[in-house]
Amino acid sequence: MEQQSVPSKVTEQGTRKTVIKPTTADQNWAREHLNALIFLGPSLLVLGVFVFYPMIKTLYLSLFLTNDAGKATVFVGFSNYLSLFKNPGYLSSLVSTLIYVALVCVATVAIGLLLAVAADQNLKGIRWFRTLFSSTMGVSVSVAAIFWLFVFNPSVGVLTQLSNWLHLPVLNWLTDPKLAMVAIVTTTVWMNLGFTFLIIFGALQQVPRNLYEAADVAGVSKISQVFKITVPMISPTLFFVMIVTMIDAFKSFGLIDLMTAGGPNNATNFLVYRIYQDAFLNGNYGQASTESIILTVIIAIMTLIQFKVLERRVNY
């Protein structure tokens, strides 16, 4: 490495003063850091303003009582957290959310895998089914809510008409607490299937066909091929889909707001919708901030558990 000479000069008092010039390595280091600052600076600024500042502000507000304008008034420490865990309504929302997330994750991945395996077969007209299976990916939340509200409508809904035609009792899908959960889970799974199907189907295209040919020669059944060849070979993709589906399920809001508004009897008042109610309908920003922090911690813990448990079964 080239080193610069270190010249010296004589000062007015007759003593030598050493002048240190930057070396080439120092200049390269400064240039690299300047370039990094130029390219990353705007992104860091946007993240700081729209991500990190709201997160820090939310954590700050969770430790205070707030007024109607959302400004902190009285410091209460962890009292907001303790009062939430003693609140039966919040605990009920927490349990409902966990049930909802578990049902959505299992149903979405299982049905998505089933559809992808079916679409991977070389059958006549299978391209139409591939398009149909992935079509929900382009459907907005509002359109999906309107469609399923019509399906579940107790007067003119498709299910009501079908029940009348079969002489079966008519079910109140959106006014019965247990059925409302089933209706919301069904709608969410239907919304997620397009994305899940496309991701899993893409992974299936990468599985070597000679594995299935060898299995056919060995007399392995198609169902056994799915569990012994397909699932292990696409396990990284399944793991990714499970993580993304779980996080999306925890953040569900639009369908709940449009279809049940948290009812009936708070059966579908999941954590995110409760945060919205406390902050923007009740004006309790301190409690809403506390619920947001708890939800973030829950998602982080559930993601960590999935990494610890499911990643061991993933074949990279």
Brief description of this entry?
The protein has 13 helices and four strands. The chain is mostly helical and 316 residues long. The protein has a two-stranded antiparallel ribbon. A two-stranded antiparallel ribbon has the order 3-4.
Give a written overview of the molecule:
This protein is mostly helical. Helices cover 68% and strands 4% of the residues. The chain has 13 helices and four strands. The strands form two sheets. A two-stranded antiparallel sheet has the order 1-2. A hairpin with a 5-residue loop joins strand 3 and strand 4 (72-75).
Quick tags:
single chain; 316 residues; mainly alpha; 13 helices; 68% helix; disordered N terminus
Count of helix runs: 13
Order of helices and strands, N to C? EEHEEHHHHHHHHHHHH
Structural class: mainly alpha
> What is the subunit organization of this protein?
single chain
What gap, in angstroms, lies between the N and C termini?
Answer: 42 Å
Give the SSE map.
Elements: E1 8-10, E2 16-18, H1 24-61, E3 64-66, E4 72-75, H2 79-85, H3 88-119, H4 126-134, H5 141-152, H6 158-165, H7 177-204, H8 209-218, H9 222-233, H10 235-250, H11 254-259, H12 271-281, H13 285-310
Antiparallel strand pairs: 1-2, 3-4
Helix pairs in contact: 1-13, 3-7, 3-10, 7-10, 10-13, 12-13
